[in-house]
Design a protein that fits this description.
mainly alpha, 2 strands, globular
């Protein structure tokens, strides 16, 4: 099972490099089901893995001229604010057990996994569904961009997910960026949010298995270099529907596992 986890680690990077989103969708389930990390702690691991992987992806896209700093800042600052609020004030306040019905316990960990699975289903639908990415105007709506960033911060903070599948549409329609620039800018935002969120967790006393964390991160970084190279030859948007079906199956598996198989 560990070797499967290592393969998925590479796949996380490849997907991030290709489409600027989706890699974090695999990270939390991999950490929980393959490496048996507590879901709450797994969100912290996920922040680091996704953040450091995105960092190397940003470097590659920057060299190619696919990074728009101004749009990234207007999105990242409010997103970072809501992320830190979520991880330091909302998540710690959640009870370990919400309630119990006829012996079925709705715990904090169960809640995290179910919400994440629902997010996966939403991501899958957005990737499977065909949508136009053509930019029809150059007027950037920074107000809507910042507001959307604030909402994404809650998702990143709560689930340890980069939120790239939501960031990219926002950059396409509010920042009016072409797809390649949206991918590069999305990676920059994911990198900033995830690494600062993880640093906050460390300062809060989180205990980390550094050997596991670094092993997965190195493999994911290898994957993002592979994905970036492939992206020069293949349009990542064309791969979204296939990956969307994969995410859909995983989301259904998580819900089934949490509800019926435990």
């Amino acid at each position: 099972m560990e070797y499967i986890g290592y393969f998925i680690s590479i796949l996380i990077g490849v997907i991030l490099g290709l489409i600027g989103a989706g890699g974090s969708i695999l990270t939390l389930p991999m950490l929980v089901y393959i490496f048996h990390i507590n879901p709450f702690e797994a969100t912290s691991y996920s922040l680091f893995i996704v953040g450091i992987t995105a960092f190397f992806g940003v470097f590659n896209y920057y060299k190619l001229g696919y990074l728009k700093i101004k749009s990234a800042i207007f999105f990242a600052l409010p997103s970072l604010l809501s992320l830190l609020l979520t991880r330091h004030y909302i998540l710690p306040k959640l009870p370990l057990t919400f309630f119990s019905i006829n012996g079925f316990e709705v715990s904090k960990n169960f809640f995290i996994m179910i919400v994440f699975a629902i997010l996966m289903l939403m991501a899958a639908v957005s990737m499977i569904r065909k949508s136009s990415t053509e930019v029809t105007t150059t007027n950037v709506n920074y107000t809507k961009l910042g507001f959307f960033g604030f909402l994404i911060g809650f998702i990143t903070g709560f689930l340890g997910a980069g939120g790239g599948f939501l960031i990219i549409p926002a950059l396409l329609f509010f920042a009016k960026l072409p797809m390649k620039q949206a991918i590069g800018t999305s990676l920059f935002i994911i990198c900033i949010n995830s690494l600062i969120g993880f640093t906050g967790d460390l300062l809060g006393g989180l205990i980390i298995d550094y050997q596991l964390l670094l092993t997965i991160s190195v493999l994911a970084i290898l994957g993002i270099f592979i994905g970036t190279v492939i992206s020069k030859k293949i349009d990542g948007s064309k791969l979204k529907p296939a990956f969307g079906w994969f995410v859909l199956i995983m989301g259904i598996y998580i819900i089934t596992n949490e509800l019926f198989l435990k």
